[in-house]
From TrEMBL:
The keyword Transport does not apply. Keywords: DNA-binding, Transcription, Transcription regulation. CDD domains: PBP1_LacI_sugar_binding-like. It comes from the Bacteria. This is LacI family transcriptional regulator. Pfam families: Peripla_BP_3. One of its GO terms (molecular function) is transcription cis-regulatory region binding. Residues 1-20 form the HTH lacI-type domain.
Length: 302
């Protein structure tokens, strides 16, 4: 060791990992195209919390971001990089990519807010999407609204279906009908939500409230209502979901459902470290509570 110090020797982490069978490295896949997503309005909260927890435990993060690489086997990529565990934060079609879901069979793996369905026996952390959607819809009902439309996310993710379920159950519990004609899909896109809202109000101009499954879609809804000459919230109330930073600064400030993104990343990281340390096959399914944040975009029916 003295000679090594004198020669400024730096140990090779990968070589040492072969001896210890660990490299103290966590791999993170995210986004729709694996490396898309840095423009996400809430991804930074996930990364900060993950970095803090795994860093404190002595682990480094490895972000998989080479879009041009052959991804015929994500397991092979992870084996090449020698990761000890994997965190998946997936959106869109990547949620249904069977190749990436092979990872949980080979590595300790935790999904954060990205499960395609609840039939998979995997470790995952999510917001209580159904309860959050229920409370958002109840808020609109309590304000007197009876024609409440739903701008849903996509037809892939478990969270999207849970938010529709919360909306539906709130209507039925209040003795109101559930009408699928009031369901439109905005695919978490502001522009798509804008177009869908125009079509929605062309088919039924008497709608008085819209609950969108993301804040970005809610922004698109409000823009469309402005195009139609409708005021928010005087003519139509709008509620979003996520509580991204810009929601409070939008005009009008957006009523939305707050997700505890930092806590989700923190919880998922702790579960992964436990799986790596204990090397056990316990399946964790954690729901993090949401909170309705009432601002200026929702108001009583006039």
């Amino acid at each position: 060791m003295q000679i090594a110090k004198e020669m400024d020797y730096v140990p090779n982490v990968m070589a040492r990992g072969l001896v210890k069978k660990t490299t103290n490295t966590i791999g993170v896949f995210f986004g729709d195209q694996v490396n898309s997503g840095f423009d996400s309005p809430f991804l930074s909260d996930y990364f900060r919390s993950i970095k803090d927890i795994v860093g404190e435990a002595g682990y480094d993060l490895l972000i998989f971001s080479n879009r041009n690489r052959d991804t015929s086997s994500y397991k092979m990529i992870c084996h090449e990089k020698g990761v000890d565990g994997v965190i998946l934060i997936l959106t869109g079609s990547k949620r249904t990519d069977g190749k990436i879901h092979e990872l949980h069979e080979a590595f300790p793996t935790v999904y954060i807010d990205s499960l395609p369905n609840d039939r998979m026996r995997v470790n995952f952390v999510e917001s209580d999407n159904e309860r959050g959607a229920y409370e958002a819809t109840r808020h609109l009902i309590e304000l007197g609204h009876r024609k409440i439309a739903k701008l849903a996310g996509d037809q892939i993710a478990k969270g999207s279906f849970d938010r529709i379920s919360g909306y539906k159950n709130a209507l039925l519990d209040s003795g109101m009908p559930y009408d699928e004609r009031f369901i439109r899909y905005g695919y978490f896109s502001e522009e798509t939500a804008y177009r869908e809202t125009l079509e929605l109000f062309a088919s039924d101009p008497d709608i008085t409230a819209v609950f969108a499954s993301s804040d970005l879609m809610a922004f698109g809804v409000i823009r469309a209502l402005e195009t139609l000459g409708k005021r928010v919230p005087e003519d139509v109330s709008v509620v979003g979901f996520d509580d991204i930073d810009s929601a409070q600064y939008f005009r009008p400030p957006l009523t939305t459902v707050h997700q505890q993104r930092f806590k989700m990343g923190e919880t998922g990281s702790k579960i992964l470290l436990e799986l790596i340390k204990e090397n056990v096959g316990i399946t964790h399914h954690i729901r993090i509570p949401t909170q309705l944040v009432v601002r200026g975009s929702s108001g009583p029916l006039h």
